[in-house]
Structures are given as C-alpha cells and as structure tokens.
Amino acid sequence: MGEKPVGCDVCGKRFTQQGYLNTHMKVHTGEKPFVCDYCGTRFSLKNNFERHMRVHTGEKPFGCNVCGKRFTHHGSLKAHMRGHTGEKPYGCETCGKRFTHQASLKSHMKVHSE
Q1: Cα angle 81, 91, 85; round to 5
Q2: Each residue of 83-112: pLDDT tens digit?
Q3: Is residue 51 part of a domain?
Q4: Separation between Cα atoms, residue 23 and residue 31, nearest integer Å
Q5: 101 exposed, middle or buried (CB, 10 Å; 0-12, 13-18, 19+)?
C-alpha cells in the first residue's frame, strides 16, 4: 500500500497528496462551495455536486453493454449488471442463501427474526 505522508491535524486521517487533504478538510470546516442552481442544495465535493446535477438534467452517462439500458449512477449500472451475470455477492449468514441485491438480503433476514 502507498505511503501517506500528509495528515489531517483534526482527525488524523492520512493522505498520499496535499490536494486530497485540502479536499478532506471541507468535512471539518463545513465549506460547501458547489451550489445547485435548480434546488439550492450545496456540496463540499465537486464530484458529488456533478452526480446530483444528473437528477435535474436527466443525464445517464453509464450504459449497459449487454442490453443498452442507461443509468445516472455507476453503482446502479453495477447492480443492473448482476442481472445479466447472475452474480450474487450478498449472502445470508444464517442459512447461506445468496442475493443479487443488498436490499433483497435485508428483506430476507426478516424470515429469520419471525
């Protein structure tokens, strides 16, 4: 793992570059320089602001290479792809049953608590 020579004086978290520390410091200062012109929501990080903007613009930059369906978030595409691959990364520790989505596992867990 890479060396992390730069540290946060507030919480001790370490970073590989000064720029990453500068970005992190917004967590402590509460600085939110990115403002949505549509709804006024403010963001500390540019990438979170840009992801939020897709709610208003309808932009869907992530596309499935199997069926062509498009998504606003990369995580949504990843979850969708499991439907094509059959991957079931979420497993019940009680009975071993596996699930494609975390929400399905959470719903299933109610069976064991009844």
Answers
A1: 20
A2: 999 999 999 999 999 999 999 999 999 999
A3: yes
A4: 10
A5: middle
Encoded tokens for 53: 């903007």
| Residues in Cβ contact with 61 at an 8 Å cutoff, skipping those fewer than 6 apart | 54, 70, 72
Q: Domain limits at 49? A: 4-8+19-30+42-55
Q: What is the pLDDT of residues 35-49, one digit of tens each?
A: 999 999 999 999 999
| Cα torsion 11, 15, 21, 26: sign | negative
Which residue bears the tokens 């929400």? 103
Write down the pTM of the prediction: 0.66
**30 phi and psi, to 5 degrees?**
80, 5
Give the CA angle between residues 57, 102, 72 to the nearest 5°: 10
